[in-house]
Amino acid sequence: MRNIKDLKRHYSVFNRSVDIGSAFDIESVEYAGDLSFYGIYPGDIQLQNWKVISGSSSAGMKLRKSISEGFSLYSYNLWGQTKLVLSIGDPLLTGNDDYGYIRGNPTAGAYDGYFEFVEWAFKGRGGSVNFGDYKISSYELRDRLENFADQTGYDLTVVGGDRCAARNTAVGGSKGSRHLYGDAADIIVKGTSNRDVAIKANKSELFNTTIYYPDSKIPEALHPHVHVDLNPRHDNVLMIYKRTNGSNRYFLWNP
Amino acid sequence: MAFFVLLNVLVACKNQNTEQNIQTDNSQSSVKKIWNVVKTENSFIVFDDNSRINTKLFDMSYLCSLCDGAGEAFFVLSGRTCRDCDENIAIFIFTPTDTLKPVSELPKYTYPGKEYDYENSQLIYESKLFVGRNANSKSSADFLIWLQSEKSNSNKMDSSIFIVDVFNNKIREQRISSREQKYKEKLNLLKNCKEIKGIETISEP
User: Fold this and answer.
1) Which chain B residues have a beta carbon less than 8 Å from that of A227?
2) Of A35, B79, B107, B188, which residue is 20 to 30 A from A223 by alpha carbon distance?
3) Share in percent of chain A as helix, strand, coil (round to 5)
4) Does the distance separating the beta carbons of B107 and A159 come in below 8 Å?
């Protein structure tokens, strides 16, 4: 489970009339984008905790307190876009302070509520990303790593991130390295082969480049891991690092 | 003096990762540690008084020290900032006070040799690195000098020399293009320099 901080910005507050017992489409109120951009798909989302910060109905009823039960959220896919639907149903109408409620006549009416979504959560497979001491400047790459972990259930460990440029060259050496741009990461998954991780990373289509570094047993070879980046010149490229003719090189890979 | 040496060793044992300038309350004078490097052990530099400093670099080797005569040591190291990653070996300059810095903030320079583009195997950078002593300086400071050529945006190889030394206790860098007049003059610095053997690398993806 993880919070989606970026989504909170999109959905934080909205104001509209809501009929008791009806469902309303959050997407149509606040968000016009494609949630699949974030790697979010139907079934991946649940409302973990949220509250109503204020609100009143035309009938003088007031929305109060934190509500953690009684509202349900579901998603569906329409023409490639993930829609979120928040449904207000009967469990709200208990008048019980412990759970939050809509005060007043619970049977009918329209509510003009100001809703603040406090926390969203993925209902993924429980994977995680351990960034350790490594900084990755690109929020997009961080999100995609989290999504990759959610999709696969992998506990990713980041073993390389942003790098500073060498100061003696005009372009900083290692020309064009995405690590200098902050949108590359080196990762491993303990207990899982780097080969499997690289193949799944490529199949996820979350990264522009995936490079598999096998355990080559060659002293001067780079250590085994998987590199992923958002190189704009690449479109879901999969490569392998291997030794040929006495030197280590990179090749396109089709496992 | 023996007291200072003893105190120095005690501080080294108590906190092996910190700078060891010791000040006396009475005289307000400072006794600077003389950093005689004996060896390296993993990421640690070990000194002749058995104190050690953690550089936090991987595959680390000690190459030499730079000094402007003021006593502060600037260690020239090779290594990388991550282990299971695709970062190439580079040159870093490290001072005892840098133990509190993230390694990503250390001054970083290319390791000498040839570097090929990882996508098309074309040569994109080539350099030779020399360590020398500046005969014209009274402080007889050591310096590093790269004789290098790199592929420019117009796909031509541009040559330059890059000099690093320590001046007023700070790292000083100078880049001189082969198109500048003083380029040939600076090449004279290469006399009596010791070259650090280069390696072949592929650019980092």
Assistant:
1) 85-86, 205
2) B107
3) 20, 40, 45
4) no
Q: What is the Cα gyration radius of chain A?
A: 24
Quick: pLDDT tens for A147-188: 898 788 899 999 999 998 999 987 544 568 999 999 999 999
Q: Is A22 helix (H, G, I), strand (E, B) or coil?
A: coil
pTM of the model: 0.68
Separation CA A150–CA A12 (nearest Å): 23
Give residue A170's pLDDT.
72
Distance (Å, whole) CA B97 – CA B95:
5
Comparing A50-54, B72-76, B138-142, B179-183, the range with the smallest average pLDDT is A50-54
Q: Which residues of B touch A220 (CB under 8 A)?
A: 199
Residue A216 CA to residue A45 CA, distance in Å, equals 41
**Ranges A30-34, A85-89, A148-152, B194-198: which has the least confidence:** A30-34
Read off the pLDDT band of B203 (50, 70, 90).
Answer: very high
| Cβ within 8 Å, pair A223-B164 | no
Distance CA B162, CA B173 (A): 7
Residue B44 backbone dihedrals phi, psi, to 5 degrees: -100, 140
CA atoms within 13 A on the CB side of A26: 27
* Strand-pair partners of A49: A119
> DSSP letter string over chain B?
-HHHHHHHHHHHHH-TTS---EE-TTT--EEPPP--EEEEETTEEEETTS-EEE---EEEEEEEEE--SSS--EEEEEEES-SSS-PPPEEEEE-GGGGGS-GGGS-EEEPSEEEE-TTT--EEEEEEEEEEE-TT-TT--EEEEEEEEEE-TTSPEEEEEEEEEEETTEEEEEEEETTSTHHHHHHGGGTTPEEEPPEEEE---
Cβ of residue B183 closer than 8 Å to a chain A Cβ: no
Residue A85 has pLDDT above 60, yes or no: no
